[in-house]
Design a protein that fits this description.
Strand content: 25-35%
CATH architecture of the largest domain: Alpha-Beta Complex
Radius of gyration: 19 Å
CATH superfamily of the largest domain: Medium-chain alcohol dehydrogenases, catalytic domain
Mean pLDDT: 97
Length: 330
């Protein structure tokens, strides 16, 4: 099969790889759409020790089952594989399983390939009317869905009366704004410094602003902040704009803790919560919401063939695309 292989820092290469062989309770999926994630970019830069080269990256995928009794069925792939037996798994929080695995981390090659092996229980059926490129957005949207739900549980008021801000106009940020709107939030702002990406995010109907301008939320004015970047600058912005008693949900995976205003967090009883991945229920609910069209037109991604994957990585690295997400088509 053809696969896009991470071969070292700032290098991915399209080459022939052996077809994967499914193990017990696994099936092969013929990948038809797979998104490039921020974590793929982190690995591409050589900054993720969990993803050593050479490795097939990619975990935001959809396609058709290629083996077994359900061959031909259209599916979205939940890339998080858990043990199914620990307290976290039994309690519905498989994303916190201590022995979890994720496609695109050893020992599980990812989906930047024509074929990928996946546990059958990790597949969610996709109806015929849903484009598989949009079905591949289930994974990043599920991340945002879980983050918003985390914030909503911690809020002292309903989302409909909360002032909300999302930091970052990538796929997680745009999806978080869409989930907030779907969950009933009326006052939503999204901050993104890249003008072209800001324009793309604006097409969803979300009010967007450039950080540092007059449109940025005022100090201590926001009840719920979703930090979809997790950089020192966005942590500082979140600390500055969060209201007394407000919530910061930290969804970004960049290293460090610089920027958090611990004094304000303490004196104003601000809650800072991490959020990671999603539960199996979250993932299934997002696929159902995608099928029902509840996230709008989903016109904020672009599609490219897998053979152009190396250039896609370079364009993302250079900020040369206005899209919030690039979907590769094997």
């Amino acid at each position: 099969m053809k696969a896009l292989v991470y071969t070292g820092p700032n290098a991915v290469e399209l080459r022939e790889e052996p077809d994967p062989v499914p193990g017990d309770d696994e099936v092969l999926v013929r990948v038809e759409a797979v998104g490039i994630c921020g974590s793929d970019m982190h690995a591409y830069h050589g900054h993720d020790s969990r993803r050593p080269a050479p490795l097939v990256l990619g975990h935001e995928a959809a396609g058709r089952i290629a083996s077994g009794p359900n061959a031909g069925r259209r599916v979205a792939i939940n890339p998080l594989v858990s043990c199914g037996a620990c307290g976290f798994c039994i309690g519905g929080r498989a994303h916190l399983c201590r022995s979890r695995q994720i496609l695109s981390m050893p020992p599980r090659p990812g989906a930047f390939a024509e074929l990928v092996r996946v546990p059958a229980r990790s597949l969610v059926e996709v109806p015929d009317h849903l484009d598989l490129a949009k079905a591949a957005l289930a994974e990043p949207i599920a991340v945002s869905y879980h983050a918003v739900n985390q914030g909503a549980r911690l809020l002292a008021r309903p989302l409909s009366s909360a002032r909300c801000a999302v930091l970052g106009g990538g796929a997680i940020g745009v999806a978080a704004a869409l989930v907030l709107a779907m969950q009933g939030a009326a006052d939503i702002r999204l901050g993104e410094p890249h003008a072209a990406r800001r324009a793309t995010a604006s097409r969803t109907g979300v009010r967007c602003y450039a950080p540092g301008t007059a449109d940025e939320p005022a100090e201590s004015s926001v009840d719920l902040v979703i930090d979809a970047v997790g950089a020192a600058a966005t942590r500082a912005a979140a600390s500055r704009m969060v209201a007394p008693g407000g919530i910061i949900v930290h969804a970004g995976l960049l290293p460090g803790s610089d920027g958090l205003d611990i004094r304000k967090i303490t004196l104003q009883e601000v809650i800072v919560s991490g959020t990671y991945c999603y539960t199996p229920v979250d993932f299934r609910e997002v696929v159902a919401a995608l099928a029902a069209g509840r996230f709008g037109a989903l016109d904020w991604f672009e599609e490219r063939p897998l053979r152009e994957g190396a250039q896609a990585f370079r364009d993302l690295d250079a900020g040369a695309t206005a899209a919030a997400k690039i979907i590769l088509r094997p």
